[in-house]
Amino acid sequence: MYIKRFLLAFLLMISLASVLLLTSHYSARAQSDSNAASPGGQRAKPTPAPVYNVTSTINDFDSIFNPLQLQSDNLNVNLTGTGGAYGIYQTDSSTNVINRIDGDGCVGNNCDGSLYLDNSTNRSYRLTFNRLSGSGPTGTYSFHGHLHSVCFDPTGATTNTVAWSSITSSNPNCGMRVRVPLNNTSYALIMGPRYDSPQPTGRATLTCTQQLPGGSCVAWTIAPNPTRSSINPNPGVANLYTSRNGTYNFVGQYTLTYSVNVTYP
User: Fold this and answer.
1) Which terminus, N or C, of the chain has the lesser number of Cβ atoms within 10 Å?
2) CA-based angle 88:253:158, to the nearest 5?
3) Structure pTM?
4) pLDDT tens-digit readout, 236-262
5) Could you give the CA distance from residue 45 to residue 250 in angstroms, rounded to a whole number?
6) The dihedral of CA 33, 38, 43, 48: what is its sign?
7) Is it true that the peptide bond before 265 is cis, omega within 30 degrees of 0?
8) Cα 178 to Cα 196: distance, rounded to the nearest angstrom
């Protein structure tokens, strides 16, 4: 009888010790996780990805006064006329314009240029469709759409994008996307290395025009790359796609000319 009581007491002590050990372990872990979330022991809120508001000037003519297919609305930010063949665009809540370098959230090297006029009723750009093949639209229209330009490795690789601020000379392996909502259809006119299907397109060249002493670029021009090469198989040509729910369907090929100056801030 004495031996049985001793064994029962011994087993009870082991059980209690196990419970206390587990409780202590999970309490310490929970406290550690909580402290790791923020210095004050409270869970930290996600840090928003940085964006950089910029000023863009869309030019209506090239340097030798040839009209460009992508043209501006010839307005200043305050909606007065510029008095010239160009328009100036900035982020402005009163006109619902967003103009910034953001791309994929400016995480790592994913910093691209974007001008959003989709929700603006005051600002627009003009585009002349010059069709080379296919059955898409022709003519000149004004659009409340958006422009997007992204650069890739200048050697021709398309796996990694290159931040605009890191381009201190020029990059010949960039893209230009023009969103054009027309007749209840959302189109995208695109030249760039990721949109060479089913027909190859041209490339855009991004050139740094102002560099800070620390090395970062803060002003750029973007225009079609005129030189045919292995990374630029079809200079000056873009593919037109219909865009629906993230799916692109090829419509035809078009020429695309443009000249845009961008400065930060």
Assistant:
1) N
2) 75
3) 0.80
4) 999 999 988 889 999 999 999 999 999
5) 42
6) negative
7) yes
8) 16
